[in-house]
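Lab notebook, bench 4. Still working through the backlog of constructs that have no structural model yet. Next entry is a single chain of 388 residues. Request: give me the structure tokens for it.
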Amino acid sequence: MNIVVVNSGSSSLKMSMFQTTGQPQQVPKQAVWDFEQDIDWQQESIENIEQKMKSALSQLWEGEHRHIENSEQIGIVGHRIVHGGASYSQPIVINDRVKEDLDKLTEFAPLHNPINLTALKLAQHLLPKAIHIAVFDTAFHSTLPPEAAVYPGPYFWYADLKIKKYGFHGINHKYCSGKAAELLQQPKELRIVSCHLGGGCSLTAIVDGVSIDTTMGFTPLDGLMMRSRSGAIDPGILIYLLKNKKYSVDELDHVLNKESGMKGIFERSADLRDITNAMERGDERAKLTFDMFVHRLSGGIAAMVAAIGGIDALLFTGGIGENSALVRAATCQRLAFLNLSIDEKLNVSTPVDVDIASAHSQTRILVVKAREDWEIATECAALVLIPT
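Model written out:
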């Protein structure tokens, strides 16, 4: 069975293909084909994007490096969908009703769900014979206990309007927790704080592979300071800005999602590499941006540790988590009271799927490469290939 994974990000399109025997067994870790391209989903025409997707997929059955004979040999297409709302806590085969439901959720994940749906519809048009499956970032967090999931507003928000903490990046948090158990050879009762740090940033407190708490909430706007999203701020600020007509609702939505976070503070760039380079040249605004990011990250990690009563492993993943030795070092220095100590040489050695804690550190510190593609393929195979 050939499984294609479509992972459409806010500014990119990633696709990969995994081949399984069709038996109820684990999907091979290695994809036989990978594709990634920057896409301006807001500015490019649907026709141009479809042509790019079509051209990329044709690599699978054309040329000397082809893997299959034709498009009909693709049996499953797995799609990353950011927000599944209250209705979807498991992967599901996509039909018209599912697409209608997901369309209604676009306002809760405005940077991602519309793009996910666009990519989904294009892939269905290009690969009509395949089974298309939605895999949700929110699903992993459906295990949050009520004290973590319910907001302290009027109870009808939760009971009637389904306003609660849904959490995000769940596909990668789930994968990383499993990889951590494998690396540490401790499959049971492992207490992990997983730090997914990229364009979007979130933390998850995990015990025995189960999500107990997380920083993103009803939408992906909550929690940590991010590349262009504010993260958690005093809601009174928003009331003040709206009452004094500083922004319209739409303008405020745009500012909080696309003009805040690191971009909002540093202004010249939202790329942490630019910020750290400027900081090393003595730029005070860059230093403020970096220090704010680490301050909020460290405080969030401490809160996650409290939620699970301790920590066995601190895990870094995502573009920043995997590649910024500075962020890892500064964060671990602030969290030394958690009995963790980083190995400086390992930290700067471009680590992948390794423990970078020093020998005397009681808490392990892991760097794990994000593998949302494999996790999606595995969940699709479990839904379609493994009998219940």
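Notes after review: Residues 185-367 form a domain with the Nucleotidyltransferase; domain 5 fold (CATH 3.30.420.40). The chain has two domains: 2-136, 185-367. Flag for follow-up if needed.
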